[in-house]
Structure formats: C-alpha cells, structure tokens
From TrEMBL:
GO MF: ATP binding; hydroxymethylpyrimidine kinase activity; phosphomethylpyrimidine kinase activity
Domain Pyridoxamine kinase/Phosphomethylpyrimidine kinase residue range list: 24-274
Enzyme nomenclature, EC number: 2.7.4.7
Organism of origin: Gordonia neofelifaecis NRRL B-59395
Protein name, entry field: Bifunctional hydroxy-methylpyrimidine kinase/ hydroxy-phosphomethylpyrimidine kinase
Function: Catalyzes the phosphorylation of hydroxymethylpyrimidine phosphate (HMP-P) to HMP-PP, and of HMP to HMP-P.
A GO cellular-component term linked to this record: cytosol
UniProt xrefs under InterPro entries: HMP/HMP-P_kinase_dom, PM/HMP-P_kinase-1, Ribokinase-like
Length: 284
C-alpha cells in the first residue's frame, strides 16, 4: 500500500474532514499536526478549537479552554455548510467540552452508527506528562464519546487511565483492546509506541471478533512529538476517502512511520514527526 491518498484535480473541491482539538503553539501536535497531515494528503480540513495551549518542545505551561458552546458552534457552523466525510477529536480539555461535542455529534449525524465516521484520540496528557484533560473528564470521555466512536486510538498511558490495564506485552495489549472495545467504540486501536524495549512498534486493532496486528520497525528517534495526532489524522483522512477501518489504520501506520523516519530536532526538547517527507520529489 502506498502512503498517498487520491489528490483532487486543480480547482476541484477536495474531500473535507474536521479536527476537534487543541492548538499547540510549538506546531508539532494538536490542530497543527492534524492540519499538516490533512494538507499533505490533499484534504480540506475544518477546525473546531477546544483549547489554546502555551507549549513548546519542552512542555506545556498554560491552557486556555474555549467555552463549550463555542466549540460546538464551530462544528454546527461548518458541518451543514461545508460537509465533512470524517471527524477526529484530540485534546478536549474538560467534561463540559466533551458533553457539548457529543451533543453536536449526535445532532450532526457524526459517529459509528451515523453518516460520518468519528476517530477519537483520547488525549489525556502531553508526552512530558502535562495534563491536557481534566481528571474529572475521564467519565465523560468514556460515557459520552466512546460509544459514538468509529475507532478510538489511545496510547499506553491513556489505556492505563481508561481501563486500569498496564500493557507490557502482546497479551496485555490484546486484553486492553478488549476492555476498550467494551466501552462502546466500533473498533479499538491500542498503540504500541510506548513499548520502548521492543524493536518493533506494534499497534493492535480489535472489533469485538478478531485482532489485527500492525507492527512496524521501531525508528530510533527522540523526535516523536505529535505521533499520535499524526496517526489519528491519517486514519481520519483515509476514512474520509471511504477506506474501511483496517485499511485506514494500515495506511496511517505507513504515514506515521515515514514521518518518524524523517523527524527533525526542534528547540531544546523533542522535535515533531515530519509529514513534510511527502514533499520530497524522490518519495514514492
Ligand atoms: N519510535 C517509533 N518507531 C516506529 N513507530 C512508532 C514509534 N513511536 C511511535 N510509533 C507509532 O506512532 C504511532 C503513535 O504512537 P504512540 O507513541 O504510542 O502514541 P502517542 O503519540 O499518542 O503517545 C503508533 O502507530 C506507534 O506505533
Ligand atoms: C494541543 C495538543 N494536543 C495533543 C497533544 C498530544 O499529542 P500526541 O500526538 O499524543 O503527541 P505527544 O504529546 O505524545 O507528542 C499535545 N501535546 N498538544
């Protein structure tokens, strides 16, 4: 499978998708990571901002949440007008914001049993451990958003918070996928990026019947900021093009692996995954 999606003809309206997420002032994660991936895949991306973070390559030092009604209003403005064929959520900051997004998603027919697939990346903290979701919002995430999700994409820290399972190997990764699936999403993807002792980075996808494994060689880089966002955005883009979930995950896995191989240093901390590799005329 190639790491490309079909491009629109010049002047033709591209496939449209939407990200509901926080802004990363450093440009490596959040909305900025989503927009980079969406643009380089040839998609038109709409945005509902949930929070503005004060963030650089060393961590997050401030968060300004957006009023929940304004988050939902961005969705309610864009979807009926522009039309989107897939939606992704990232940093959601608080329970009231999650409630507003879930209400809007139901009204706008976004979700696993509706018209528009929904990718829920349950962002809880930055890679430096700075909280990006209020501790009392986990319940809303599980009870309001997970049952609407086409696919959820937690990392292993998020898996621990959501299920209590400490993933250390293939068996516990599968057990976590089962526990996550029981929370209501159509598919659960347990990402293995944090299994740092392994020479592969295995992701496991589960739909209640069988497991699909997405291994990839582990890239030796400290510059992995925004990897989760980039993966989830690429899944969303592929779903927007009508891919089935397993094919969308396979596509996105290739996309993020190429981005990790091309990652660059930035600032004093961790640099970002780099979707700009797609601009290399030599790239296949
Ligand atoms: N060093 C790495 N080499 C190859 N793939 C990686 C590496 N780190 C993360 N990934 C992949 O990037 C994606 C994001 O993973 P992860 O780091 O677990 O999420 P997050 O960025 O949300 O913490 C997953 O597909 C994971 O397997
Ligand atoms: C605004 C914002 N959203 C999400 C994240 C976390 O992004 P993620 O892709 O999970 O990457 P890392 O934090 O693991 O690099 C963020 N930091 N900021």
């Amino acid at each position: 499978m190639t790491a490309r999606l079909p491009l629109p003809a010049s002047g033709a309206t591209p496939v449209r998708v939407m990200t509901v997420a926080g802004s990363d002032s450093g440009g490596g994660a959040g909305i900025q990571a989503d927009m980079r991936t969406f643009a380089l895949l040839g998609l038109h991306a709409c945005v509902a901002v949930t929070a503005v973070t004060v963030q650089n390559s060393t961590g997050v030092t401030g968060i300004q949440e957006i009023e929940p009604s304004v988050v939902a209003a961005q969705m309610r403005s864009v979807v009926p007008d522009i039309g989107v064929s897939a939606v992704k959520t990232g940093m959601l900051a608080s329970g009231p914001i999650i409630d507003a997004i879930a209400d809007a998603a139901v009204d706008l027919r976004i979700g696993r049993d509706a018209d528009v697939p929904l990718v829920v990346d349950p962002v809880c903290a930055s890679m430096h451990g700075d909280p990006l979701l209020a501790a009392d919002a986990l319940g809303a995430l599980k009870e309001r958003l997970f049952p609407l999700a086409t696919v959820v994409t937690p990392n292993l820290d998020e898996v621990r918070l959501l299920t209590g399972i400490d993933v250390v190997d293939a068996d516990t990764q599968r057990a976590a996928a089962v526990a996550l699936h029981a929370l209501g999403p159509r598919w659960a993807l347990v990402k293995g990026g944090h299994l740092r002792g392994s020479d592969v980075s295995p992701d496991v996808l589960y739909d209640g019947t069988g497991f699909l494994e997405f291994p990839s060689a582990r890239i030796d880089t400290p510059h992995d900021h925004g990897a989760g966002d980039t993966l989830a955005a690429a899944i969303t883009g592929a779903l927007g093009h009508g891919y089935a979930v397993p094919d969308a995950v396979g596509f996105a896995k290739q996309w993020v692996t190429r981005g990790l191989a091309a990652a660059y240093p930035l600032g004093a901390g961790h640099g970002p995954v780099n979707p700009l590799w797609r601009l290399d005329p030599e790239a296949d």
